[in-house]
User: What shape does this take?
Amino acid sequence: MLFNGFAGTQLLWEGDRVVGVRTGDKGIGPDGQPKSTFEPGIDIQAKVTILGEGPRGTLSRQLINRCELDKDSQPMVYEIGVKEVIEMPPGTVKKGEVILTLGYPLDLNTFGGAFVYALADDKYAIGLLVELGAKDPAMDAHYLLQKLKAHPYMRKKLGAGKVVKYGAKAVTVGGWASIPKLYADGAMIAGDSASFLNPARIKGIHLSMKTGMLAAETAFDALRSGESAEAVLAEYAARVNGSWVREEMEASKNFHAAFEKGVVGGMAAVGMSMVFGPGKDIKPFHADYEHMLKTAHVHGHKGYPERDEVEYDGVYIVDKLTDVYHSGTKHEEKQPAHLKVVDKDICATQCAEEYGNPCTRFCPAQVYNMHFSETTKRNELHIDFSNCVHCKTCDIRDPYQIISWVPPEGGNGPEYGTL
Assistant: This one.
């Protein structure tokens, strides 16, 4: 049975055993009280629950945190990917064309790269990936994508087109080093929720498919035996370790660690590992939010620097709100915000002073804005959650870790379409 439009919000437990998933309530007002359209969530009970929610999965994190599945692995780390689809004049798209870049418009302290893919129907897809461990608090992936498009080479190739689609998503890049324990009583984790993506290739769909298949085989055996305890589901990890998944991913297990000290040193270290192998040990690294430096350390006491001029024309070079429109994101606005900030006073005081409110930059959908309040006589955080494109960057990169992304009302969010 496919429950389209129902967001999984909680795991169901019997003691320390997972027994299913609870979907979110619908028809809850901004005050948290049921509206006339209220529809309670449902409990979907299962003998085996397989979690494959993509990067930073809500239920997966509940399982990992409660069962301490990540105590023997490195933290999950991410890049933010921003992507546009550009419609070109007929006959101007070269069939099968692929362009991959490294560096510009990023500096040598920030790892990332870009791609251009030819699509059907006279369209190109262009995207930029930027590490969420970027040291600069002013990092803005959406602006950097527009800057990339303004480069003479890109403008010559794509400038005659118009943006028709937009999206943003976190990408897991910790690879083999970040994979947690994959099972617990009654549950397994597959795909990007468990960091199954090859960071050296930025490829993960094949790994998600294979781990899903291995989890399904394990679940089938468990159902046939009538037992889905942790010891039984441990066979899933054994299957992963015995498959080509481990062979592919283990070769780049230290890829992310190599770039912790910069792009140049990282390239050299990765090159050496390709020649001599990655070594026996996994090298440690830090969570993304720990890398952000304070504004004064990066830019002095003048705050964020002036940006290089980019001429927004609303067609080829577009601002964030225009791209939010292109994303097709829709949310019922009379519901509780699905972006939870533990203490907004930190945003108005400590974060403003130390980091310059980086959420106003790193969010690729202009969800977070600082507005002057006549009541408090200071800038206060305003959350436009209806703009959210569900990338989860804020949950990952916030230096104080006081922002949490939780599922909104089921069926809400971006319209992915050709993305």
